[in-house]
TrEMBL record:
UniProt entry keywords in alphabetical sequence: ATP-binding, Cell cycle, Cell division, Cell membrane, Membrane, Nucleotide-binding
Official protein name in the record: Cell division transport system ATP-binding protein
SMART domains: AAA
Single GO biological process annotation from the record: cell division
Length: 230
């Protein structure tokens, strides 16, 4: 079943040229898909459309069958509950401990503090960062901070993880750990869409969609999933 579908999606930013042009793609439930392409190709724009942070100028974006392009503000929390977002502009709060950072998405949606803390500890354990729960973010390496950001993104157990360049500026070992963390969620059935510049990861990927100047220029799949005919 398709979790994410783009049908002839174009995006024009006000006053700008087309950030995306006629993009059509389908991502199945449980897939791990990499989005590649040069800076400015439209990767961030595409990811933000899945979360309805940006809206298509034309075309349709469906998440779990729901058209999210025209979603009303009151429908956004329902959509966002399904999604775990690791976006470039969402840094950790440096004046709060790791645990508080990961609890925050639950606390702001009204969860009880004890419940939020329990969930946050479980999320930190999943990304191998529970021992740093009491640390301040600036005492962590870039890769560790990124794993905390992943814990924050999955604390509400989303069906889909959207990660925009989660390994940017990391050394190879840290990048590998971040990627293994995402792969573990994929193995647990979570749909993952991850943008990257890193050829090393693209070589290992099962499915890559290349964007250039807002268009899908290449897309391949190493081991195509054979749909069960039944
Ligand atoms: N809010 C905005 N307003 C106007 N133009 C924008 C906005 N966001 C992105 N753009 C433009 O849209 C195009 C695609 O940008 P986008 O950030 O989606 O690319 P990207 O592939 O994610 O690049 P990078 O790898 O550098 O993050 C670029 O030309 C960019 O300048």
């Amino acid at each position: 079943m398709a979790m994410i579908e783009f049908h002839d999606v174009s995006k024009l930013y006000p006053g700008g040229s087309a950030a995306l042009s006629d993009v059509s793609l389908s991502i199945a439930s449980g897939e791990l898909v990499f989005l590649a392409g040069p800076s400015g190709a439209g990767k961030s724009t595409l990811l933000k459309m899945i979360a309805a942070i940006e809206r298509p100028s034309t075309g349709r974006v469906l998440v779990n069958g729901q058209d999210v392009g025209g979603i009303k503000p009151r429908g956004l929390p329902y959509l966002r509950r399904k999604l775990g977002l690791i976006l470039q502009e969402q840094r950790l709060l440096m004046d709060r401990k790791v645990l508080a950072n990961v609890m925050l998405p639950l606390v702001v949606t009204g969860a009880a503090v004890e419940h939020a803390e329990k969930r946050a500890r479980a999320a930190l354990e999943k990304v191998g960062m529970l021992s740093k729960a009491g640390s301040m973010p600036q005492t962590l390496s870039g890769g560790e901070q990124q794993r905390v950001a992943i814990a924050r993104a999955i604390v509400h157990r989303p069906q889909v993880i959207i990660a925009d360049e989660p390994t940017a500026n990391l050394d190879r070992d840290s990048a590998n750990l971040v990627l293994s963390t995402l792969e573990a969620f994929h193995s647990a059935g979570v749909t993952c869409v991850v943008s990257t510049h890193d050829e090393y990861f693209l070589d290992r990927a099962d499915r890559v969609i290349y964007l250039s100047q807002g268009r899908v220029t290449e897309a391949w799949q190493r081991n195509p999933v054979v749909e069960d005919a039944a």
